[in-house]
Amino acid sequence: MTFLATGTLLLAAVSACADNDADPQPTTPATSSPTESAEPTTSPSPTSPNDAATANATAAMTDYYSVLDGLRADPSSDLKKLETVAIGAQLNAVQTLVRRQRDQGQRQTGSTAISELKVQSVTLDNSDPDAGKVPTVVIDVCWDVTKVDVLDKSGKSIVSPDRPDTGWTRYTVANYEYAADPAGGWRVATGQDLKQTPCAAS
Prior knowledge:
Elements: H1 12-19, H2 49-73, H3 88-103, E1 107-109, E2 113-123, E3 136-144, E4 149-151, E5 166-175, E6 186-194
Antiparallel strand pairs: 1-4, 2-3, 3-5, 5-6
Helix pairs in contact: 1-3
């Protein structure tokens, strides 16, 4: 079986179970008033909670690809690194992907590129984290694996010549630690491949 660098071939079966919790009604959490600057007119406008969530979730999305690429390239690297970028159904899926690849003696070369990234929605409802009502950012990513290869034990490529080099996946990036860590608690929670025209390669 040939895997894409995104690991999304495994996600169709598991994403639906997490999607039920990924669409809370948006509310804006209370924030403290910004401290007034001693130098008027020179301070930039404060970043809104939505803008901050978008920036932090986007950074988490980029980190997710970087960590996954690294783990697939180095069979000796610690799988616990996945817990820093993924959670829930997505974490289970990518753990399964990497473990299966390692069991079969496969390794990745090259890195996945993000050709396009589109934020679809931002929801800041943190009313019930135990029930999955946490801040989420839904992001569509067009990934590019043109420079990615997967090798078997002998060093031979196992990538099909028919493999698509680009494609779209919709991710939900969630923050279950929003109250304590609104900036750094973002993790990729679900992923679902989209059937749409691939973007141009990077």
